[in-house]
Queue: 2 jobs
Job 1
Amino acid sequence: MKKQISIAIDGPAAAGKSTVAKIVAEKLKYLYIDTGAMYRALTYKAIQKGARLDQEAQLIKILNDTLIELLPGETGQKVLLDGVEVTTDIRSSEVTNQVSYVAVHRLIRREMVMRQQDLAKNGGVVMDGRDIGTHVLPDAEVKVFLLASVEERAQRRNAENIQKGFPSNFEKLKEEIAERDKIDSEREVAPLKKAVDAVEIDTTSLSIPDVVDKIMELALERIG
Ligand code: CDP
Ligand code: CDP
């Protein structure tokens, strides 16, 4: 049997992580794990409960009492929160604009990292997030850091919204993405940054298949 490696994909919002991670996982028949969905699910529940997102103790209490399941779905990953599907709900702009405030807390990250490491313990995973190569899977055989200009990333989200028939404002998206990048990169615990041994890919002018090919090349080298 071929070696089952772990692939870590990190980078800022809308760099293309989940799109390419999903395709690479399909090609290799690996498990795709979008760790952002776990922070989003907790944020969604905390908002519903009226919790204060700056209060770590309140949030950890909620998390300790929360089951987040990431299951393979027809169009990627299906997310269940305490047994109820929330795949779409956790993508709302309210959750998107609050999630980084939840993800700053040390205890929350510690618990999330433990859960993520458990999901990846048998290898054969493509995991995307912000701290996968640096903290969650420091020994991953392949580490990739995806980048793209903020204009390009806002343009991508804008195009997604328009395609779905949602209202969209490019300038607002640009501001929101820049703000989230800032919080994610400047937080004290496990900030968004390239692992020293990660391969950086600037996707600004690359197509999705171009990025997938580059990652597949790195993966196949390691799988042998
Ligand atoms: O898909 P998008 O890039 O918009 O975001 P996401 O991957 O769903 O992540 C949402 C937020 O969760 C990020 O902005 C981070 O604040 C947090 N996150 C994190 O701190 N660590 C991770 N491994 C994944 C996400
Ligand atoms: O997961 P992350 O937030 O990093 O980004 P994503 O949700 O995978 O990608 C954001 C959007 O950019 C999607 O609509 C992709 O189809 C698009 N994309 C692109 O146009 N070119 C790429 N090289 C990668 C993604």
Note: The pocket of cytidine-5'-diphosphate (ligand 1) is lined by residues 13-14, 18, 35-36, 39-40, 99-100, 103, 129-132, 180, 184 (CB under 6 Å).
Job 2
Amino acid sequence: QPVLAVVGRPNVGKSTLVNRLLGRREAVVQDQPGVTRDRVSYDALWNGRRFTVVDTGGWEPDAKGLQASVASQAEMAMRTADAVLLVVDGKVGATGTEEAVARVLRRSKCPVLLVANKVDDQRGAGDIHDLWSLGLGEPMPMSGLHGRGSGDVLDRVLEALPETPRDSFGASSGPRKVALVGKPNVGKSSLLNQLTGEDRSVVHDVAGTTVDPVDSLVELDNQVWRFVDTAGMRKRVNTASGTEYYAWLRTKAAIEAAEVAIVLIDGSEPITEQDLRVITMVVEAGRALVIAYNKWDLVDDDRRRQLEKEIDRDLIRVRWAERVNVSARTGRSVAKLAPTLRTALESWDTRVPTGRLNGWLNELVAAYPPPARGGRQPKIKFATQAQSRPPTLVLFTTGFLEAGYRRFLERKFRETFGFTGSPVRISVRVRE
Ligand code: GDP
């Protein structure tokens, strides 16, 4: 769904306004420097249309000062969102910071809306004309506190947002691409048949334009997905034929062609080395991951307990992946696949704004500094999420960070920002 990014200086009442737009009060977050928030984006619904509101967070002055940090937030918003809402304190008017951000936003290809917040009464509405000077069109008066004007703002937001979201990273367009993978006989073709059964969905074969693999378009939960390289599965070729080597190549290619992989594991049998290898392939390829335990109709209590143990032993490193217990035979829980795919892809697509990332990291590192090596204490100077798909953090440090500490950072990063279903990469750039 399309994304609206809300940007503004701290204390302009951004959070109140976001909550007002979302129509809920419990989401109130503090607009103070250094306050870690656990939510970055929110789902909004207005006039029957859904969109995502991304709150870019309090802008904290970084090394280059408030204006530079604000400008980089605006850049980020422009690059990732389908429309940007700049919030200004209507009582204060445009400051140098807003002028700096407006300069950035005027170059934006996506629509920019200007909201003057804290305009609580008619009298205040007269004072906002100065904001025309920002060159972002007509300022819309609103009161986050009272709700005054919020309906008009939302109407304008809907006008500005495209029906279909722009793809910010160019990785895909059209239906999201799914690889259904797993070792032979785990039930891939059975599951695909279950998902595409006549009564459940419309299936089309999409002839690959240049190469021979054939994908299937599958409708699940009111969304069309593209299951990649399903030709062999649907024809139900004997999986025992063909060399194992070929099967692996094909699995690898399917994973690479996809954005998210469902790794199917036979829940009724012990987890094998082959299962783990498929999971490793997905993680190494940097794709989002859902783990589905199939043949659940054959799983009794004993087996279930045993499986939990196997998972604890073998799959701890991908505990961030959601798991679904399904039966391709009975159709049990296959409906849960679509929501988990969505969650995983959402994480995979997410980009945490630099200001927020550093606010979080500074607090964390102050409380848990990286261990010293060779008598020297590495300092983490700055972090940025250089990429999504998969989310990739780059840390600029003065020294080497141990693997254990990196894992700790990853775990804390996930605790704070989520990222269920997506691998997270951390790369460290050492600069003296
Ligand atoms: P693939 O090689 O991964 O495509 O696996 P298949 O779909 O061909 O399934 C292998 C075998 O497992 C077949 O005999 C299926 O009937 C059986 N099977 C698949 N899914 C289930 C399930 O959920 N429950 C049970 N009991 N059997 C299943």
Note: The two ends are 43 Å apart (CA to CA).
